[in-house]
Amino acid sequence: MNVMYLGGLVFSFVLFIVGMLFSSEIPVLYFFGILGLAGTAYFVTRIISDLYRSLHQ
């Protein structure tokens, strides 16, 4: 597992949480929340596929 994937996962998840918590006050944060959710899904997929590839070599 690449450390950059883990860092990206944490950053994306924090972006999602902040975007969803404060989107009622600042509507543009909906966009950042959606980007954070998409980033979280992307990095989870990358981490799982790397683990899968390393187990099946």
Amount of beta strand: under 5%
Number of domains: 1
The computed structural class is: mainly alpha
Let me know the number of strands: 0
What is the gyration radius calculated from CA atoms? 14 Å
Report the total helices: 2
Distance between the termini: 14 Å
Query: What's the main sheet like?
Result: none
Low-confidence stretches: none
Please provide the ordered H/E string of secondary-structure elements: HH
Overall pLDDT level: 92
Fold and architecture overview:
The chain is an all-alpha fold and 57 residues long. The chain has one domain (3-55). It contains two helices and no strands. Helix 1 (3-21) packs antiparallel against helix 2. It is elongated. The model has no long low-confidence stretch (mean pLDDT 92).
